[in-house]
Write a structure and sequence with these properties.
Largest sheet: none
Keywords: Membrane, Transmembrane, Transmembrane helix
Protein name: DedA family protein
Number of helices: 10
Order of helices and strands: HHHHHHHHHH
Helix content: over 70%
Number of strands: 0
Strand content: under 5%
Pfam families: VTT_dom (PF09335)
Family: Belongs to the DedA family.
InterPro entries: DedA_domain, VTT_dom
């Protein structure tokens, strides 16, 4: 499986920005290959365009999130069952019920499978504007952060991202959740 993903990555890299756009779109709705696997080597190979690549990746990912939402709205749960184990779906539903649309932001920024959240947002009939807003913020933060690291660290960005990115995104997710809970608490106290 790993070899197949590597060959697919190499093949998509040959298509440059078109491959990056496709993977970014598909990752948000149905595809198992994260766009970081193309964004990082493309950014390293052409660092003066790394922020353009981050924009393109974010844009395509948000368009893919809209498509994932539409899949969830029209076809729904059977599609999720084709793509993921029931245990994963139940875990995401739990996050969705607990955090609401904030779950979209967290999944957009972290290594969680974003496509489950976009499809589930359609199943849950979350407003499309909400999906677009939180997907844009989360995916933009993730891909621009990677672009920033590539721009600042060059080749050293790869080991840094491999070693620390997942942990950093989890800390950011915890910070977002704490901020959200604190804001909700303050709002409720002021009523």
């Amino acid at each position: 499986m790993q070899e197949t993903l590597h060959l697919l990555k190499e093949w998509l890299l040959e298509y440059g920005v078109f491959g990056l756009f496709f993977v970014s779109f598909a990752d948000s709705s149905f595809f198992p290959l994260p766009p970081d696997l193309l964004l990082i080597p493309m950014g390293l190979a052409n660092s003066e365009h790394v922020y353009w690549y981050a924009f393109l990746t974010t844009f395509a990912s948000v368009v893919g999130a809209i498509f994932g939402w539409y899949i969830g709205l029209r076809i729904g749960r059977p599609v999720l069952r084709l793509l993921f184990k029931e245990q994963q779906i139940m875990k995401v539903e739990h996050y969705f019920q607990k955090l609401g649309p904030l779950a979209i932001l967290i999944s957009a920024f972290t290594p969680l499978p974003f496509k489950i959240f976009t499809i589930l947002s359609g199943i849950s009939k979350v407003k499309i504007q909400t999906v677009v807003l939180w997907a844009t913020i989360g995916r933009g933060a993730r891909f621009y952060f990677e672009a920033f690291l590539i721009h600042q660290l060059g080749d050293k960005a790869v080991p840094f991202i491999k070693e620390h990115f997942s942990v950093l995104t989890i800390y950011m997710a915890i910070l977002i959740i704490i901020s959200f809970i604190t804001t909700q608490y303050i709002k409720n106290r002021l009523k």
